[in-house]
Design a protein that fits this description.
Blueprint lengths: L2 H9 L1 E2 L1 H11 L3 E7 L2 H9 L3 E5 L3 E7 L2 H15 L4 E3 L4 E4 L8 E4 L1 E4 L3 E15 L3 H21 L6 E12 L2 H9 L2 E5 H14 L3 H9 L11 E9 L2 E8 L1 H7 E2 L20 H12 L9 E5 L7 E4 L10 E6 L7 E5 L1 H5 L12 E7 L3 H11 L8 H11 L6 H18 L9 E2 L7 E2 H9 L6 E2 L4 E3 L8 H22 L1 H5 L8 H21 L5 H20 L3 H9 L2 H19 L8 H9 L3 H27 L3 H5 L2 H17 L17 H8 L1 H9 L10 H5 L1 H10 L10 H14 L2
Parallel strand pairs: 9-10, 10-11, 14-18, 15-19, 20-21
Antiparallel strand pairs: 1-5, 2-4, 3-4, 5-8, 6-7, 8-9, 12-13, 12-17, 13-19, 15-18, 16-17, 22-23
Helix pairs in contact: 2-4, 4-7, 5-6, 12-13, 13-14, 14-15, 14-16, 15-18, 16-19, 18-19, 18-21, 19-21, 23-30, 26-27
Protein name: DGQHR domain-containing protein
Pfam family, one: DndB
InterPro entries: DGQHR-contain_dom, DNA_S_mod_DndB
Amino acid sequence: MQQNLKIELLGKLVTEKNISSQISLRNKSHIYETISNEETILNLKVEEGWEIDRTYSKTIKIKKKKPLDQFFEDRVWTLFAKFGFTILNKDRFFNLPYDKTNDSLTQQIDVFAKDKETIILVECRTAIQNKRGDFKKELEATSGKIQGLINSVRSLFPDEKLKFKYILATHNFSINENDIARLENINGIHFDESNIEYYYELISQLGNAAKYQLLGSLFYGQDIPELENKVPAVRGEMGGHTYYAFSIEPGKLLKMGYVLHRNKANINMMPTYQRLIKKQRLKEIKTFIDEKKGYFPNSIVISIDTNKKDLQFDRANTQVQSTISDVGILHLPRKYRSAYIIDGQHRLYGYADSIYKDKNTIPVVAFINLDRSEQVRIFMEINENQKAVSKNLRLTLNSDLLWTSTFYTDQQKAMYSRIAITLGEDRKSALFDKISIGEDKKIITSEAIVNALNKTNFFGKVSKNKIEKLGTFFKGNIDDGYNSLSNFLLKSFTYLEENLEDEWSNKESILLINKGVSSIIRVLSDICDHISLNHSIINSDNYFSKTKHFLDAIILFYVNLDDEIKEDLRKTYGQGGDLKYWRTLQKFIRDTYDEFKPIGLDEYLQKEKREFNEEAFKIIREIEQFLNKDFEKKLESKFGTQWFSKGIPLPIQKKSTELALEKNYRKEDGENDSSPWDCLHLIDYREIARKNWPDLFEKEYTLPPEKKISGGSEAKTKWFEKLNTLRNKNFHSYSVVKDEIEYLRELKSFLIK
């Protein structure tokens, strides 16, 4: 590289003393300009999207929201600045030569970051909305340039031994497996916005120590220079595993340690299990250590990731003969991400900014090369009784913990948990970032997904040691079953998303709620069952192609959904609400396609028709009992002891007296006598009210909407007739409809205070 070009490139880099001011600018969500206060200039700027920020005597400061690509680049740049990289590109126009024979051939670098040991080259790509990415062309181009770019950087810093990493950072892009392979071929890695946000949060929690989590991801397996790695240790056996017990300075373990956080940023390192570190808890631990000189006698549990042939343990000359344990010097791996923290992350990272980071030692129990599922199992056992392990997190961990179980019931749990994770974390999923995974809080819970899958025929029926009945997608192999089922569900929900854009963009969506997504999963199983009866299906693609026919009916249902049904589905809660939503979808599909006949739908609809009968009978009985007591009280208040003879119309007196005599004649021994007042019919109360209307009943027995209608007591007591009609229905053969039960509820609320 020519000396002039080298000087020019170095001039386009910002060094440590100027980085803080750059962070301040790049953290802003707007870009700013100062213009003269001429009206014509201002109007032109406003048309371009600028707005006034401040007005001065001769100038105006204007601002405009940063374009998404610039905002994302600035956010990535700021992340590496916060991580402590001391040299970064000054602006968005940093171009590195990649051809040593022609310095004019250059590659624009969005983010260039350097510290004493590391060079990071970042390319940023953004999309306005979530979409599937295809980076084949640019990654293949980068493949031909990457070595030239590295050579240029080495020319800029010839006296330093530097590690290099290329990062493709994306916002709102998924990335396919072929592009992941292309990245690996150029020693590259993919970061999406989830990774970026994860590291921002980690910096806020851990401060400087967070950089080792980043370096562990970027340079897994590479050496950590100058790490003193020898510790006195005891070697023993426990639970079939070799372990080492030793004490180490927290500062050393921080460098080699890595925490498998249950987070979308670590999705490619499944299974993961740790909850994200809590900042307040770290502060409390640091205060406990520094100010109160506190300590933690319980051991941090780790798994050392290393080749056993490379693990060195120098057995001491002096041993205790009566024990199977050995004493010696353990040589820890001097590598990034070589120690996974199974338990004790808060205790360890509480030392990150402590004055005792390199002055204290902490006890450690280290297993060697524990299988990730075994790490999860140990974590679960340690935290078995801790409230902090939420139900969603436990469901998530089950996908890893139970996957290799020999019991079919465990495999089923693992399968459904992993399906929930895939639907929520796969960028190709229509439900991406909408499902609570681990301890993330989203609009749909993973518990709801798992519960819905448990009610389907996707997995069939299994007992602990036996497959009772094969499922739609499970034929005995859990991996094949997962691949088929996840493929089918991803395609089905994508099809719905593409045709129901309003539901996916609406914050008040009736579909994107627990019972909405659950019901769709269940009805998809019903559709597959129907297809299985009529077709020979061999894979999930066949199922999906034949399912679209029925998905169109679901799409039509949501497009034409009126507000009344929408509110009814939304406000019906509990298991009854879930059942109602699912059966409603089934019914609509059947109304559209006669051949679709899911088991149990007819019985449910018949039962639903009569669901209000019991409540209606109870309300009418309560109203009758109320009228009996209230009318007697009012009549007695006016007529005293002669209230029956004076207040009741004569025809009703005669009829009720005859009925009482007949009942008493037919009564069994021991039964109480019936009085004429107890033998009134419901409609009789209307005539009693009309006879005594103005002074006894008008005020309290006129319905609010009828207070101003004409027609006197005749018109204002018509509601007795409607009530009597419902009273006389045969509820064994008649089904009370929704309008009728609502009328009865309102009437009861009006009468019985």
